[in-house]
Amino acid sequence: MKATTSPKLLALVFASLLLLGVCVQGAAPTGDNEKARFTTFDPPGATSTSALDINAVGQIVGVYISAADGNNHGFLRNKKGEFTTIDFPRAVFTRAAGINPRGDIVGFYRLPTDPPSARHGFLRREDMFTTLDFLEANVTQLLGINPRGDIVGRYCPAVPCGLGTRSFLLSEDKFSLIDVPDALATHAWKITPCGQIVGAYVGADGENHVFLLRNGEFTTIDFPVPIAVDNGGIDPRGDIVGVYCDTAPCTIDSTDRHGFLLSRGDFSTIDVPGALRTSAFGINPRGDIAGAYTDSSGEVHGYLLSREERDGDDNETIE
Questions:
Q1: What is the pTM of this model?
Q2: Looking at the domain assignment, is residue 4 inside a domain?
Q3: 160 in a domain, yes or no?
Q4: What is the pLDDT of residues 130-175, one digit of tens each?
């Protein structure tokens, strides 16, 4: 896979990062003398797998569809590659979407007694589940959690979701709204150790944009390609991963999806070799990236793009 730096990347990207500043806590710099390798994986019995986040110790969470019952189940993959299924008690749908360094997991679920469109947020800490719903919302999705337990997510005031989706921060048991000014929809993805929040929004222009929120101030990052709003990630030093498409609109159903990494103003494409499409959803302080890809037969698998040291090689090819 080739990581190509786009010459068209808008100067606004780098200028915005400089303006915002970077909060670094335990971050490992990504140097030019590194290479990376893909590891693809599926939990046992899975027919479809998506990796959605990765923490500092290499634990990965995500969702898979089981061949046994056809339901969505969350999973935790440890550094050794061993899997644990994460299911909210009695749920028929569970998605594990975010994990912090101590292993706290957030996500969302649906019970068999819920309407098909309903989703409830959950926190799993030390094997105990807690439901965390935004007020009376029918749909709550928790997507990210940082080391101090701050959680970001989104909710839908009305169903179906889409335009009108709003986001929130849950800190010290209090909800705060995250609304990009004049946005038609706001999607908060992840939160760093110092509280910097990354996400995406649909602007009044109808286009998708990435945002950074720090100390109550929003900064927009515009890309030269259509960006998806469904999910993405950030590490403590400010590197961002997400999804872009060759053509607009870029949605969760687009067939021309690619992962991207924005690091120090450089925009790189992430494509699993031979994949029909690739998504990047999580990045940890080391720079390891987790996501999903569709193979040539149309099946979806999880992947880990892990960084390794290398000597005296400055080319940008990721092998």
A1: 0.88
A2: no
A3: yes
A4: 999 999 899 999 999 999 999 999 999 888 888 999 999 999 999 9
* Torsion of Cα atoms, 227 then 233 then 239 then 242, to 10°: -20
Shortest CA distance to 157 belongs to which of 177, 175, 137?
137
**268: exposed, middle or buried (C-beta count within 10 Å: 0-12, 13-18, 19+)?**
buried
> Each residue of 3-22: pLDDT tens digit?
333 333 333 333 343 333 44
- Residue 190 resides in a domain: yes
As a whole number, mean pLDDT of residues 118-128 equals: 97
Q: Tell me the one-letter amino acid at 259.
A: G
* CATH classification of the domain holding 182: 2.120.10.30
Q: How many domains does the chain contain in total?
A: 1
Task: Give CA–CA dist 275/268, Å, rounded.
Answer: 17
CB atoms within 10 A of CB 63: 25
Structural domain harbouring 187: 11-309
Q: Which amino acid is at 66?
A: S
Q: How many residues does the chain have?
A: 319
In a domain, 169, yes or no: yes
